[in-house]
Amino acid sequence: MKTNENPYIPFHATVEDTWFETGGERAIKTFKVVFDDEEVRKNWSHRPGQCAMIGVLGVGESMISISCSPTEGDFLRFSVMRMGKVTQALHQLEAGDKMTVRGPYGNSFPLEEWEGKHVLTIGGGIGQAPMRPVVEYVKANYEKYGGLTMIYGARTSGDLCFKEEFEDMARDDELSCHLTIDIEEEQWDHNVGFVPQVLMDVNPSPENAIAVTCGPPIMIRFVLENLKKLGFEDDQIYTTLENRMKCGIGKCGRCNAGNMYVCKDGPVFNYATLKEIPEAFA
Ligand SMILES: Cc1cc2nc3c(=O)[nH]c(=O)nc-3n(C[C@H](O)[C@H](O)[C@H](O)COP(=O)(O)OP(=O)(O)OC[C@H]3O[C@@H](n4cnc5c(N)ncnc54)[C@H](O)[C@@H]3O)c2cc1C
Ligand code: FES
Q: Which of 34, 166, 223, 273 is the most buried if burial means most Cβ atoms within 10 Å?
């Protein structure tokens, strides 16, 4: 792959399309992005679970999960929640504007190892961003897997990311897609209740299965408890960590958990490994 000699120097990219997933003060906006240099575009490869440092020149950069699967095409997608300086500047960008991208960074979900198994994803809020590529990848290679179950929830229907595509999935009888919101709403014809409870209602079998979860810490805590009740072993469970990051390449020490750098050794972790690192859940 074409790389810049200095790993801190990013590639230039153009925003091809943008749309809001959610509204409000902490709105989430998705960016479809293409690299300006054709050689970079051709040679770029990422895997589900990886992330990239995206930025606005003169403002700064933030680590963001790549929210599309490489099976979707020659572009990248990032879904960004408006938090502080950098994400506010990113939210100003529209189609045709420039951003910078360096990466891809981190490890990824071991999707080849999971072939033949049933893949269960359990997400909450913006936590669905790193899991959407898993869902898309398994859908694109469906014959290689033992099935796909997706559980995804948010506080209200307006807080769900990728809502329309997941509603289409939920209507597809061949897929097991379960959407949920915390409180009843008019015209909502999916589940109502917290994600960990919906997990128990769906009652997935742990046999020959892998569970991946990402979302708010409180959701993860109860999802992990419930997965154990359902009979999932620690090594059948994966999650991703989002420690604060600066360099993204294992040099600055900003992201360490125990003796690991989340930017290099993660962000994807097997729960059996994570349990050995008390700081991971701090
Ligand atoms: C591996 C990884 C993947 C990520 N993926 C996504 C993603 O797909 N979409 C997305 O919207 N965000 C994602 N984040 C979080 C994102 O990097 C931060 O929200 C962003 O850097 C904040 O930058 P800022 O300058 O806008 O805000 P700042 O001014 O730096 O901070 C504003 C607020 O955001 C909080 N914040 C900053 N960094 C983080 C962080 N890493 N985790 C939690 N809170 C933070 C601060 O505590 C503060 O309250 C990811 C982070 C990591 C490490
Ligand atoms: S962000 Fe610098 S070591 Fe991980």
A: 223
Helices (H) and strands (E) in the chain, counts: 8, 15
Over its C-alpha atoms, the chain yields an Rg (Å, rounded) of 18
User: Helix or strand or coil: residue 202?
Assistant: helix
3-class SS at 122?
Answer: strand
In this structure, the residue with its CA closest to atom 7 of ligand 1 is 64
Domain at 28, CATH number: 2.40.30.10
Mutate to test the pocket of ligand 2, among 8, 102, 246 (most ligand atoms within 8 A of CB): 246
Looking at all shown ligands, the one closest to residue 249's CA atom is: 2
Whether the predicted model's global pTM rises above the 0.90 cut: yes
Task: Report the alpha-carbon distance of residue 216 to residue 191 in Å, rounded.
Answer: 19
Q: Are residues 90 and 131 in the same domain?
A: no
Q: What gap in Å lies between CA 179 and CA 189, rounded to an integer?
A: 9
Structure-block tokens of residue 145? 């897997």
DSSP string, 255-279: TEETTEEHHHH-SEEEHHHHTT-GG
* Domain enclosing residue 56, as ranges: 11-105
- Model confidence pLDDT, tens digit, residues 108-167: 999 999 999 999 999 999 999 999 999 999 999 999 999 999 999 999 999 999 999 998
